[in-house]
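ARCHIVE CARD
CATEGORY: sequence design from structure
SOURCE FIELD: tokenized fold
FIELD CONTENT:
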């Protein structure tokens, strides 16, 4: 599920002026929606009202936004978000900007949440000073979770990433092993030759797996989730690499598929029959499906069309009880 919105929180008239300035400048350069929240006495048609308190306003939206910019004292921001913080790999980023726009400080999810990058962007727009306190950034070195964020990947473990990042910060030699083309040479194992007794290892899962789903009407989310899990397991693929689920337009209201995409926290892309007809010749056809839907294949074309299309089908059709699953693996290097 994409997080495209940024929330600006402010409780003063001067803060609203700065918030509107940030919104205008940011929208001119970047493609993210910005919503300004403020007290009712300062609110107008460009803002949303903080009804009871900042904390109450954040309760239902905190994990649904990309990030929040507090134009308040740092203490207000910290107290407002404290009870909603879960983990650095899922929390939105949170920044604090002073009313004069002199300083921008990330206080939550600087790396994985994109807070440090957003800080630099806002700082550049306002000609402000970005205050970065993460050790990798102040030393001019890149952290493992930053690498994961930049390639839209998923960390195997926050703990192992932290250990390897600490070695990077300390100036130790670290190697990044990436196949020439992950879709063709995805390794099943790695041999490390070293005289070091202890070697810290971490893994980043590229988000390059697209799943196509076809199912009978009314199939439960539990069955679809189980089918997807079993299919990934069959091909030794991690759920952490799942990027998108695709299905045909006549299934756009299929609750089981919608809920399955929410369970895996990925986008659900609806593919039109007209799009499928253009490429269905590349896939094994089903006479029953063709008579029923007017197209010869569903899950395979949907898996391909839901992705960026460059790559390969690694499982064209895996059948379960009333469910068909297809797996498409994108290239992650050569097509950028």
């Amino acid at each position: 599920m994409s997080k495209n919105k940024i929330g600006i929180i402010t409780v003063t008239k001067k803060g609203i002026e700065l918030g509107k300035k940030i919104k205008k400048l940011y929208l001119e350069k970047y493609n993210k929606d910005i919503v300004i929240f403020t007290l009712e006495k300062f609110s107008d048609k460009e803002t949303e009202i903080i009804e009871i308190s900042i904390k109450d306003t954040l309760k239902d939206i905190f994990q649904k936004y990309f990030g929040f910019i507090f134009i308040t004292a740092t203490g207000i921001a910290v107290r407002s978000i404290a009870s909603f913080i879960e983990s650095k790999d899922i929390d939105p980023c949170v920044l604090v900007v002073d009313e004069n726009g002199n300083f921008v400080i990330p206080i939550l999810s600087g790396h994985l949440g994109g807070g440090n990058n957003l800080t630099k962007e806002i700082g550049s727009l306002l000609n402000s000073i970005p205050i970065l306190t993460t050790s990798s950034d102040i030393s001019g070195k890149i952290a493992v979770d930053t690498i994961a964020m930049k390639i839209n990947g998923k960390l195997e473990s926050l703990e192992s990433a932290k250990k390897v990042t600490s070695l990077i910060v300390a100036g130790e030699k670290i190697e990044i092993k990436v196949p020439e083309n992950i879709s063709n040479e995805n390794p099943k194992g790695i041999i490390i030759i070293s005289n070091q007794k202890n070697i810290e290892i971490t893994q980043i899962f590229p988000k390059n797996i697209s799943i196509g789903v076809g199912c009978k009407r009314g199939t439960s989310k539990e069955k679809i989730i189980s089918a997807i899990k079993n299919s990934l397991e069959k091909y030794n693929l991690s759920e952490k690499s799942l990027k998108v689920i695709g299905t045909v337009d006549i299934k756009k209201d299929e609750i089981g598929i919608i809920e399955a995409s929410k369970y895996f926290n990925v986008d659900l892309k609806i593919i039109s029959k007209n799009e499928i007809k253009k490429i269905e010749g590349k896939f094994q056809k089903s006479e029953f499906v063709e008579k029923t839907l007017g197209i010869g294949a569903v899950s395979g074309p949907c898996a391909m069309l839901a992705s960026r299309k460059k790559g390969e089908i690694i499982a064209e059709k895996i059948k379960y009880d009333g469910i068909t699953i297809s797996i498409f693996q994108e290239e992650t290097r050569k097509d950028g």
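CARD ANNOTATION: The mean pLDDT is 83. The CA atoms of residues 36 and 47 lie 5 Å apart.
SHELF: design records, drawer C
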